């Protein structure tokens, strides 16, 4: 529907390697035929579902395909242009810096290459403002988290405002937020904005409570925070009291099976309460979607008028991490 495509949109929750399109995957596969990777291994098609665990296997396959500076440059450039073509005017991309011994890629080079892609798109006049969040993969523990924060801080100071914050993501069933608290606290103290994946699975009540005390600047998913799904009133109260926006990714949660169907998505709970809720894609490549489609699904599932959709999209601007005056 052209209304949703033309609607000026803000994307706040997009993992770089999960956002790689079919076309870009084709190019990567042709660069690395020896890996014997096929399309079915990098995306979850219409009507298909996977366990969350299987979704994380998909990321491993994509990481095999994206392991050089050239790959990252191509992937980031393509992803930015695709978001722009979908009517996204402001994009916060996030990615976990990786070191690849085989290709000589370092974490620093990784981030520099993403910066280069953002700058190239800007030079070419692509109509989108892009910022970057450095991601911590929770699986990698305390020390790596601390190193990542240091790296993010360096880039925050040297990247001309492109690096604005930190993301905490990765398999929610692995590791505990308690071990990452010092790193997250340090990030906050040095002025990095925090977007944390919170309560993505039901077993994270204690961790969410702990992390909400920071408090984070935004929450990814927050699927199991509210009492109706086994969360608690006190968790909800912390979110509401601190007015922490939620990044909500409908198709991702359906395909990853943490939410049984669109109608039962927690968007409804938070939106009805009038709490800042931002529609996002999460991994547009892996979940075969785009942001206009996500808005359309939200509108048809929850009966939103065009005016309400417009407002919803516009209110996302209040949740961005870039400072003050853009557009
Ligand atoms: P990358 O950071 O390599 O650019 O993007 C892929 C990574 O993002 C995954 O390895 C994972 O750490 C994180 N990620 C992507 N989608 C999800 C999600 O739905 N939940 C969580 N917790 N992490 C995700």
Automatic annotation (TrEMBL):
Gene3D superfamilies in the record: Metal-dependent hydrolases
Identify the residues that the record assigns to the Adenosine deaminase domain, covering every copy. 8-324
GO BP annotations of the record are:
adenosine catabolic process; inosine biosynthetic process; nucleotide metabolic process
- Catalysed reaction, written as an equation: N(6)-methyl-AMP + H2O + H(+) = IMP + methylamine
- Single GO molecular-function term? metal ion binding
Which cofactor is essential here?
Zn(2+)
Q: Give a yes or no for keyword Amino-acid biosynthesis in this entry.
A: no
Q: Report whether Metal-binding shows up as a keyword of the record.
A: yes
UniProt keyword list: Hydrolase, Metal-binding, Nucleotide metabolism, Zinc
The record's section on PANTHER family has: ADENOSINE DEAMINASE, ADENOSINE DEAMINASE-LIKE PROTEIN
How this chain assembles, per its entry, is: Monomer.
| Entry's family note | Belongs to the metallo-dependent hydrolases superfamily. Adenosine and AMP deaminases family.
Return the protein name.
Adenosine deaminase-like
**What organism is this sequence from?**
Sphaeramia orbicularis (orbiculate cardinalfish)
Species lineage, top-down?
A: Eukaryota, Metazoa, Chordata, Craniata, Vertebrata
